From TrEMBL:
Organism this protein belongs to: Runella defluvii
Keywords: Hydrolase
Gene3D superfamilies to which the protein is assigned, alphabetical: 3.40.50.10890, Ribonuclease Z/Hydroxyacylglutathione hydrolase-like
Organism domain of life: Bacteria
GO MF annotation: an example: hydrolase activity
A Pfam family hit: RMMBL
Record protein name field: Metallo-beta-lactamase family protein
CDD domains: TTHA0252-CPSF-like_MBL-fold
Domain Beta-Casp: residue ranges: 269-394
SUPFAM superfamilies, per database record: Metallo-hydrolase/oxidoreductase
């Protein structure tokens, strides 16, 4: 049995791992979009892929089944391309993951269509008239490929062993992090011997708004573990409710001003809206308008509302008492682009929640551009911002930023809290690994993190007695 790491190797995005059995049965665990630059990918891995002209480093029809840990695009975003390239099998995941992935992939297809339209306009048309053939990026799938993929999703229940072949049984175990997110345990029988491999997916946090805590992973032989926050600790001792109430009071009441919160539409925004709903219900905030500026967030919130039974006890009880997780009197969802731009004229104190969370593209970029020079505005960053993104530049104190082709002076206040981060920190990851007995764990593979985070977490694991820890490079194969 062989395990090859085709994504999220010494970087955060692009999760994709290929498990090949001796009988040639092939399992792909996650199939995510890679958001790293081409230059950085080449720097991390000098070995050319076996299929240099293809999107995937393997033949898509050779895969027998895909297992999906959760809906986020860096884990699911390349699934439509897999079908476009000839894959004919199923995608197994939880029911909630299926619902959220449907929303995310359809949205990605719509954005891809916009990008294609832009590439085919003006200069591109003139070049084609001169006989030049315009080559489009090969990762741009459209609605047709999304429909084909979604028709082959098969939702499975948590904590139920499911046989995918004569020699393979899989189990989805709650991971927290996002509605429907799972750790996956793969049991394989070869030559009369059983081997088990655990895939962490993204490890959640205990006590996170709405979500259940990560469940215990049973003992496995091999463990693939994410390390996004392998060298960091989250803020301790402050609840999301108190942290958010404090920021709102200072930025919308004491001044009064405008609060802009860049937030990912799926998962993070639901945690924010739920927390705001609790604050308003408990009369901890004045009647300030809250604009949720993301159609994707609206659709995702509906999925959460339909799946209340899958949420934590506090959320279920709150929903039963208030008949809604998210809706409150001062909440306004903005669907159209015109409505989004119109709130620039809103003169009263308000809160604007919009995507994307790294302030890179999306409607929030417009709101930041309109308010970056407003000293009565606060931009609150609530999650990880990759190097080079607008969010990262804001956090690093740049006094002038180029946004949408214009140089803008940064006069707005920039703040950050991490109580809404859905990733477990170093302590959470250590707790996850320590569910495994060191003497019985044959090897640990660290993935889904920047190299410094992986190195730090490897040292942490070694200090508490774990050995045989690997940090795979992209394309590296291990015999299990």
């Amino acid at each position: 049995m062989k395990l090859t790491f085709w994504g999220a190797s010494q970087q955060v995005t692009g999760s994709m791992y290929l498990l090949e059995l001796e009988d040639d049965y092939r399992i792909l665990i996650d199939c995510g979009s890679d958001f790293e630059s081409g230059d950085r990918r080449r720097a991390l891995n000098d070995t050319p892929p076996p299929f240099p002209n293809a999107l995937f480093p393997f033949e898509a029809p050779s895969i027998n089944v895909v297992l999906l840990t959760h809906a986020h695009i860096d884990h699911s975003g390349n699934i439509p391309n897999l079908y476009r390239d000839g894959y004919e099998g199923q995608v197994l995941c939880t029911d909630s993951t299926f619902a959220l992935t449907s929303i995310l992939l359809k949205d990605a297809a719509m954005l891809n269509q916009k990008r294609i339209n832009e590439l085919n306009s003006s200069d591109s048309q003139r070049k084609r008239k001169k006989g030049r053939k315009k080559e489009l990026p090969k990762d741009l799938y459209l609605e047709k490929q999304v429909r084909q993929a979604l028709e082959n999703f098969v939702p499975l229940a948590f904590n139920r062993r499911f046989r995918v072949s004569d020699n393979v049984i899989i189990t989805f175990i709650p991971a927290g992090h996002l509605l429907g997110a799972a750790h996956i345990v793969v049991e394989v029988w070869e030559n009369g011997q059983k081997k088990t491999i655990g895939f962490s997916g993204d490890v959640g946090r205990k006590g996170y708004p709405l979500l259940i805590d990560p469940a215990t992973l049973p003992q496995v032989d091999f463990l693939v573990c994410e390390t996004t926050y392998g060298n960091r600790l989250h803020e301790k001792g402050v609840s999301p409710d108190l942290a958010l109430a404090d920021v709102i009071k200072r930025t919308c009441v004491d001044i009064p001003g405008r609060l802009i919160i860049p937030s990912f539409s799926v998962g993070r925004t639901q945690a924010l809206l739920y927390t705001l709903n609790k604050l308003y219900n408990n009369h901890q905030l004045p009647p300030i308008k809250v604009f949720a500026d993301s159609p994707l967030a609206f659709e995702s919130s509906r999925v959460y509302q339909r799946n209340v039974r899958m949420l934590n006890r506090e959320a279920r009880e709150f929903n039963e008492e208030n008949e809604s997780l998210f809706d409150f009197e001062n909440l306004i969802y903005l669907e159209s682009t015109d409505a989004s731009r119109a709130i620039s004229n809103h003169v009263e104190p308000c809160i604007i929640i919009s995507s994307s969370g790294m302030v890179q593209g999306g409607r929030v970029e417009y709101h930041v551009a309109q308010n970056i020079s407003n000293p009565y505005c606060t931009i609150l960053l609530i999650g990880y911002c990759a190097e080079g993104t607008l969010g990262w530049r804001l956090l690093n104190g740049q006094t002038t930023l180029r946004i949408r082709g214009k140089d803008e002076q940064v006069l707005a206040n920039i703040e950050k809290i991490d109580v809404f981060s859905g990733h477990g920190d170093k302590e959470d990851l250590l707790t996850f690994v320590q569910q495994q007995a060191p003497a019985e764990l044959k090897k640990i593979f660290l993935v889904h993190g920047e190299k410094p985070s992986m190195d730090h977490f490897k040292n942490t694991l070694q200090s508490v007695g774990y050995e045989n820890i690997e940090i795979p490079t992209k394309g590296q194969t291990f015999e299990l």
